[in-house]
Amino acid sequence: MTRSATGRYRARKYTDRHGNVRWRAQVAIGLYPNGEQRKRTVTASTYRECQSKLEDLLRRIRATGVESQAHVKLGEYAEGWLEHKRHDIDPKSYAMYKTVIDRHLGEYGNTALERIVPSTVRSILEHARSYTQKGEAKGPAGISLKRQIRTCLNQIMQAAYADRIIPSNPVLAVRTPQRKDSGTGRGAFSVPELKEMLRIAAGYEDTALGARMWFRLLTGMRQGEILGATWKSYNPRTSMYTVDWKLQTVPRDHGCGTSIDGEYPCGKHKGGLCPKAVWRVPDGYDMVALNGSNALTRPKSRTGRIVPIVPPLQQVLAMYRKRDTGSVYGLMFHDADGNPIDPKSDMREFRQLMTDAGMDAAGHVGHESRHAIVTLLAAQGVDFQLIREIVGHSSDAMVEHYRHADNAERLKAMETLDTSLNLSQIE
Questions:
Q1: Of 43, 121, 275, 414, which is most buried with the most CB atoms under 10 A?
Q2: What is the pLDDT of residues 275-291, one digit of tens each?
Q3: Cβ(32)–Cβ(43) under 8 Å?
Q4: The domain 75-173 belongs to what CATH superfamily?
């Protein structure tokens, strides 16, 4: 706190990250939702200018007792909200919220919460942009991204409403973005396509790669669950695989202390490079640290989901296991050093498999293998509840969403009309 021994607030000199000498003063103005102290900071290039800004701030505070809560800025409140949220949500959700706050709500950071109305929310969504991993804008935001932005902003404003900072939540008056044509979406691999990919993968000289492709195509598991698969979870005697873990990149934060103007005591910019880095996970989060930022975390669906392994896949896994060089982490699929396989490399190899099978890889996504398993099981009359348990869906509606009947199944279904109506007798 920039307060002198006499109790007066005074501007103090500091050096920013660019080596420029500036002046700064801070005043406590209350508490964030997580109980941490809120501060207002003023900075300037000269002592006189900074002191003038400080006196203006103190004058406003004296006039109202404390700075009016309604004038709390979106950026300030969102930062405190996110810090509180990190104790309750998984790393992936935290990363999503942080990206939304920093990148998509950034230009509204200095907007007072009381000034955010439904039209403001609609404007944020309408003008949202998508970005590359390098932070370069690449076009208008898609429906999924807009939904994420709305979800994040809704939770922030709902928390502000609960704190009685604003009289109502303006996001509730704005509809969730919807696709104009809900009929478009992911498809499912056909039976001939699956057979051809299995045939190609069976001929790979790299038995580890071939086994991984077979495992993907014949289990309906998610990519993270496949790359996080362990031999310990596979029981060849019962031909069952228990989905206990998934591979996930978990971010790490600085553990060396707090930053001053963006500079940390360790001198590193990224938290993952800090010698005392700490995992950014909620309280009680169950995970197994691997190499770098990789970790095994609990799956999206309930832990302990059982996936039956069909006999041909059992044989492939048995042959592969005899040649497996092993992983210190017990991973079923790994690189030459025993470390987890990079998800991007896995996707690149799967796209190559599709190309080798004579398919247009650009017109398909890896998730279609899950759709294909659901479709095949449903076509064979397998109960929806059992399908849910195998692939880890939360509801029958999700199974319906993943199921895609092909032309052969449609024709077979319509042929039942002949049986029911006895059409041959009418002719």
A1: 121
A2: 888 888 887 888 999 99
A3: no
A4: Tyrosine recombinase, N-terminal domain (1.10.150.130)
Tokens 């509180």 belong to 84
Query: Do residues 42 and 55 make contact, with C-beta atoms less than 8 angstroms apart?
Result: no
Angle CA 35–41–45, to nearest 5: 160
Rounded Cα distance, 30 and 303, in Å: 42
What DSSP character marks residue 174?
Answer: S
Residues in the chain: 427
How many other CB atoms are found less than 10 A from the CB of residue 9? 19
Domain 185-225+304-427 belongs in CATH node 1.20.1070.10: no
Tell me the whole-structure pTM to 2 decimals.
Answer: 0.62
What digits encode the pLDDT tens for the residues 379-413?
A: 555 555 655 555 554 444 443 444 444 444 444 44
Q: What are residue 248's DSSP bridge partners?
A: 295
Sign for the CA dihedral angle at 283, 289, 292, 297 comes to negative
Number of H helices, E strands in the chain: 15, 13
pLDDT at 161 (0 to 100): 87
Better-scored residue on pLDDT, 386 or 94: 94
Is the pLDDT score of 264 beyond 90? no
Domain residue limits, the chain: 12-67, 75-173, 185-225+304-427
Distances (CA, A) of 74 to 58, 85, 101, 106, 109: 21, 16, 9, 9, 5
The number of C-alpha atoms within 13 Å of 140 and in the hemisphere containing its C-beta is 7
Q: Containing H/E element for 315?
A: helix 311-323
Residues forming a β-bridge with 305: 243
Tell me the pLDDT tens digit for each residue of 160-194: 888 878 888 999 999 998 876 544 445 667 778 88
